[in-house]
Amino acid sequence: MHLKLSDYDYSLPRELIAQRPLPRRDASRMMVLRRDSQTVEHRFFPDFKSFLRQGDLVVLNDTRVVPARRFSDDEAIEFLFLEKIGVGRWKCLVKPGRKMRVGATTAIEQVTVKVEQILPEGERVVSLSKDIDLFAGGSAPLPPYIGRSSDAEDETRYQTVFARTPGAVAAPTAGLHFTEELLNEIPHAFVTLHVGPGTFLPVKAENIADHQMHPEWFSISAATAEKINNANRVVTIGTTTVRVLESVARNLYGLKQSSSGRGRVEEQCGSTDLFIYPPFEFHIAEALLTNFHLPKSTLLMLVSAFAGRDFLLRAYDEAIRERYRFFSYGDCMLIL
Questions:
Q1: 69-137 belongs to which CATH class?
Q2: Closest CA to 242 of 194, 181, 287
Q3: Are 62 and 160 within 8 A, CB to CB?
Q4: What pLDDT tens digit does each residue of the chain (336 aa) get?
Q5: CB burial string 196-233: b at 16+ within 10 A, e below
Q6: What is the DSSP string of 7-67?
Q7: Quick one: fold of 5-65+144-335?
Q8: Exposed/middle/buried for residue 281 (C-beta within 10 Å: 0-12, 13-18, 19+)
Q9: Helix 239-251, helix 298-307: angle, nearest 10
């Protein structure tokens, strides 16, 4: 068992962190990992559909990133608005936090923003002197490792072509590679998980089993559940999709089994704080397309549980040698 935080560390040259998307969504490289033979292939994303079998179902997360990033009128404070919790009251992240203690004020569009409470993880509860639409003037909240402000290109490219349910503060990045043309050529279905602020927060516990995930809202429709239960193989797109399906399977009393031995799912919505790390028994996900993830992140731990930690980290070493592009705007891997 690999439960030490240091077990999920690796060294990445900074120049391999993708700062911009490629001109074409589907132009990324795709590393293919075969778990049965412990082998790696180097392909390109347009080859993805050639790995699908008859009866496979591709499941994607249709969450839409909201323009939740705002600055104070004097540009001294950066806000990431996470959740509206009442009239003129929001939960948010702020930078720099030292300037926004309880009682501190600033202004957005000449509306006073006051810190009412600091939550245990550092989030702020703020009140606005006037209830305004904060998203109307906001921008895409790019991850911290993209060392620039978002621009017009990000408004479309840091969003999947199938995004339709607003609520995320980060994109389900494995889905960024898909074009409408490819989707029309493959059998697919959607779930929703609104990616929350936990995706930006580092794991601090040296024993990863002590880490607590932030709850994130999810939904799966009856139509999608029926397609999954009738599929030959479930090909999940991204770690967020995996977490929806495995959460639903565990929420069903007794984890009903299908004749194939795969767990069944049903229509459901709610919140999940499921933390997937090795060892973990997957009941729904049978193949996974995912991007390359940060060292010591919960995402890397989930993929380690799916692929096997040692095999995955060997593949990461090879990706670095082959100069793959990492993280949100980077290349991808398909784990079979």
A1: mainly beta
A2: 287
A3: yes
A4: 899 999 999 999 999 999 999 999 999 999 999 999 999 999 999 999 999 999 999 999 999 999 999 999 999 999 999 989 999 999 999 999 999 999 999 999 999 999 999 998 889 999 999 999 999 989 989 998 998 988 999 999 999 999 999 999 999 999 999 999 999 999 999 999 999 977 767 899 999 999 999 899 999 999 999 999 999 999 999 999 999 999 999 887 444 444 446 888 999 999 999 999 999 999 999 999 999 999 999 999 999 999 999 999 999 999 999 999 999 999 999 999
A5: bbbbbbebeeeebeebebeebbbbbeeebbebbbebeb
A6: GG-----GGGB--S--SSGGG-EEEEEETTTTEEEEEEGGGGGGG--TTEEEEEE-EEE--
A7: QueA-like (3.40.1780)
A8: exposed
A9: 70
For 180, phi then psi, to 5°, come to -65, -35
Tell me if the pTM is above 0.85.
yes
- What are the extents of the domains in the chain? 5-65+144-335, 69-137
**CA 31 to each of CA 46, 92, 320: distance values in angstroms, whole numbers, following the listed order:** 12, 36, 12
